[in-house]
């Protein structure tokens, strides 16, 4: 379902999935959050410096995401145990999803899988109905920040005539 050039494009129905989010077997996916915007933040690896800074930024922006009623889901091919340690070390409270087995299956569905065996650094914003409203691919060594996400969430709010804040 991705664009021939890579990352899934706006207007597409987002592929559904559930993958492990917790060591106790809890599964999470965007369908659980229908009715709310969902931000899928694909990233290469838990312990890389850029990924750590990126995920910590999204955690620090949690109050802003809450104003949009948006859910952030981090997605990488790392295991749930790696995610758990990484989240604890960086104070990350939003779900980090283990696209671990089969490795990269979710990233592949979204056009965000790299041949080197990692997820690309990609952002995908889903509208409350599960349609891609915005997507962005960053170079692996560049933190994409949150401005593009917030612009996409602003547009969703405007389209729905929802007051943010």
UniProtKB/TrEMBL annotation:
Keywords: Antioxidant, Oxidoreductase, Peroxidase, Redox-active center
Keyword Oxidoreductase: yes
Keyword Metal-binding appears in the UniProt entry: no
Superkingdom field: Bacteria
Official protein name in the record: Redoxin domain-containing protein
Pfam families per the UniProt record, alphabetical: AhpC-TSA
Boundaries of every Thioredoxin domain copy: 8-158
